[in-house]
Amino acid sequence: MTKEKKKKTHVPLRLNLLFFAVFLLFSVLILRLGLVQIVYGDDYKREIERTEEVTVNNPVPRGKMYDRNLKVMVDNKPLDAITYTRSQRTTAKEMLETAEKLAKLIHKETNKITERDRKDFWILKHPDEAEAKITAADRKKVTEGELEEKDLYKLQIERITEKEINSFTDAELEVLAIYREFSSGYALTPQIVKNKDVTEEEFARVSENLDSLPGVNITTDWDRTYVFGNTLKSVLGKVSTSDEGLPSERLDYFLSRGYSRNDRVGKSYIELQYEDVLQGNKAKVKNITDKGGNVVESQVVSEGQRGKDLVLTIDMDLQQAIENEIEKQLLQAKKAGNTKFLDRAFVVLMDPKTGEILTMAGKQYVIDKETGKPTINDYALGNISSSYTVGSSVKGATILTGYQTGAIQPNKYFYDTTLNIKGTPKKASYTNMGNINDLTALKKSSNVYMFRTAIAIAGTEYVPGKGLNIGSSAFETMRNYYAQFGLGSRTGIDLPNEMVGYKGTDTLPGKLLDLAIGQYDTYTPMQLAQYVSTIANGGYRMEPHMVKEIHDPVDDNTELGAVVSEITPTVLNKLDMKDSWINRVQDGFKLVAMEQGGTAYKYFGHKSYTVAAKTGTAQAFYDGPNKDKYKDLQATMSLSMVGFAPAENPEVAFAVVVPWAYQGHSSNGLNGKLAEFALDTYFDLKKTRQQADETDETTENKVVTGKEIQQEQAE
């Protein structure tokens, strides 16, 4: 009985211990769960729901360009576009699958595929064969540290055969072309897959299948359109394509300013110079992603705004008319003969008081390599990017330099006859003019007067048969004074890559005399325009500029917005010369054009408007694009003319340059013909516009008067 009791009490004790142990374990578990939920619950919840915010900048259309009369010159043409945006976790396999689906819906050109693209794609399409190209020995080198894992991919690339990379079908190449676009963009940044020649059928098919094309979307892109064709196109500049993106030579510059690598930017000239204005404010989209990189929400931070608009100083009516005339005159001159080297001509019209460029025309005659027929190309850019010996057009600067240095005084007389200088070829004018003063020297374009002036500037005397004691300092003096007019120095125009011209290196006495008549150093047409403007406006060297105003864009995209900035005239320097000296040279220029016997009288002597001008003819050697065809230097004659009108109160200055215009002694007069046409057109347009304004004003007054009469009758 006692044993049985002892046995019964022993079993409950063990059960109690077991229950107690279970109780402790559950208590610990409950305590742990409470700790996790109460103390760390929010932290774990945030980790599970963790998201990342990524802000993406989407490009907007560029600003437009207008001429001074508000005619649109450069605009944006809308394009249907197909884009692809990959997430941060999108795999190459997933992109390939999407590319294969998209290739069945659109046609994609394959001409941009490179050999490396083919090799990368072959590895992607043939992973097993690619893996077989890595040997055990290669793997061992990685293990031993001789190679890195990434080097194995390089070995695969190197071992792909020509046959393998050429094994793709046309359909596979289209997939590759699309995949290439997919993989070239940043994560969460839309990448243009196709924006040129997207057909309505392609656009519709893609639109209908967007649900099965992850990352693919349809949108509207833009392309630059030039309303006036090739007119001034070389100066307006170029914009990079979506494929080009940021230019490599300026990559760091643009990236530091918030650009993306595939952004389209200005590559040259006005598009480049005013990139910060034309680019606009990008649309900003905030993509919220989960920890897997999937976009869970997109929020528009900023709608963005297209670039600001530029109003240029150019008058497109004037520009086009002058360009057409240059083309006509070039073709006629080439047919007339004696123009073996003639292939270009330039005309610049500038407001001498403000520096505004009204016309910057340049044309080049070339033979089409395919057809063998002549064609005329835009070469407006040559006005700042090419320089020439221009001849007597610079004589105004020589006379004023003589005044300023004290070498000559107004009304100084020299006897114009051939100079016989020891060690120098004979120097003469085109005819012996006898005893002449400075005004006659300008009117008839005396070389000898300029030679004697240069000799006096050098501080020496001319003695027939004797040499001249001229040092290099005389060249420096002449060039320093010339630079005050803009000759031989950059004009400061708001365009990149302006040429400064060529300065001769010889300091022989005869070269200084050549410098004085514009037959040694070379100058650009734009420098000539600035030089003559400085004389026209009384001695102020104005900075030429192509942009007149900057305007805010407007929402409807049909008109100009408010003025953001107006480009004000900039004086680079004032000639340190007496007003009477500048006035005297102005008078001399007027004699050239308006008095019989002046070298430009036949072009302007009969006009209703007055002109002050200076002609130039330079003996030069041909150094153009075809110079390699000739063993010896080929002598030729270049023509130029500068001036301003009206002569008494100048409102337009001009420079005409026709390099290598003719050979021999019979001039074709292209400089005068182009200058005459340019000024005739300028004043004709001015008159026509004034009459139109008067007509509009009269019509408006008539309407107002009619309303007033009706009101009176009603009363």
UniProtKB/TrEMBL annotation:
Pathway: Cell wall biogenesis; peptidoglycan biosynthesis. It is a single-pass membrane protein. One of its GO terms (cellular component) is plasma membrane. This is serine-type D-Ala-D-Ala carboxypeptidase. Belongs to the transpeptidase family. Residues 690-715 are annotated as: Disordered. GO terms for molecular function: penicillin binding; peptidoglycan L,D-transpeptidase activity; serine-type D-Ala-D-Ala carboxypeptidase activity. Transmembrane segments: none annotated. Residues 346-664 form the Penicillin-binding protein transpeptidase domain. It is found in: Cell membrane; Membrane. The keyword Transmembrane helix applies. The lineage of its organism: Bacteria, Bacillati, Bacillota, Bacilli, Bacillales. It catalyses: Preferential cleavage: (Ac)2-L-Lys-D-Ala-|-D-Ala. Also transpeptidation of peptidyl-alanyl moieties that are N-acyl substituents of D-alanine. Its main location: membrane. Residues 59-298 form the Penicillin-binding protein dimerisation domain. Keywords: Cell membrane, Cell shape, Cell wall biogenesis/degradation, Membrane, Peptidoglycan synthesis, Transmembrane, Transmembrane helix. Its EC number is 3.4.16.4. GO terms for biological process: cell wall organization; peptidoglycan biosynthetic process; regulation of cell shape.
